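User: Could you check the structure of this?
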Amino acid sequence: MNNKKSIILALPEDAGLSNLIAKNFEYHGFDVIYYRRQPYKYKRPTEKIANFFRKNIFGDKGYKNRQQDKEALEKLNYDIMERKMKIDYALFIRPDTFSIEFIKKIKGYVNKTIGYQWDGLDRFPDVFDRIEVFNDFYVFDPKDILNHPEYDLKLTTNFYFDIDQNPILIKNEAKKTIYFVGSHLPQRVSAINKFIESADKLNLQINFLIRLKQRKIRDKSLYNSECINFINENIDYSENLNNVKDSDILIDFVNNVHSGLSFRIFESIFYQKKLITNNTEVSKYDLYHEDNIYIWDNEKIDIDSLRDFLNKPYYILPSKILNKYSFKTWYSSVLGIDENQ
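Assistant: Sure, the predicted structure tokens are below.
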């Protein structure tokens, strides 16, 4: 008899992050039925024409998603029926990318359906029509709960992946490496430029990867540093974690559209890396310690205080706090199961 918990995992493709989530569920003993939303490829020219008219004439922006969901259901039906029993959970991450019909269909196959919007609700307003379809709906930005009391929203955070059993890499290089990876956002160019200017004064080895789409290539001139590596595509998330392990310091530039904590913050506590961030909200969490996390306000950095921060030893967080933000604790909370199971 199979005592494994079963879960349907549905989320958009995001630089290998979706694969890592599926692997972590499997690592913790789940039977995973995995649906990864990928960019839609038209099967025939008439589909592309139909989508153009629906989108631009009738304002129907969900046609491609519905077509993709229809095809996905055929495969999911086979995977579900093969198990010959009702699935325990369905977890939708970024449910705004899935049609309401698709979510309802999957809901009929499972005992409990959970949604998690790990981006701000107002950034992707299609999500509002889907919230009440779920048994439970989670957000990572506290402001979403304050701004939308009409919905039964629950608060969670992001997490670190606890599948890595050897997260601590001892480094002895004299020159410290500082690492950032992220997309080009006009609203954070100024902060990046100001920080790099300060980093140069502290003799830090800068490893900044900024994704810049080809149509925005002229925006490279907005950055006043030659040490930035511009990339056309997101790097795989597993490669990102290798870069994290191989760095001394991580930097987190907040995205102004939300105030929730990014994955970078949880990576920093798991891999025991110093973190520099302009997200002041982090000081409200129990994972914050002034020896580990340096908060600045986007203005000129006090070089002396930053140097003092970097010279202090890393403060090892109590295991109770560290475990609180693990993948296992996260899924146990959102799925509503006993963490010791």
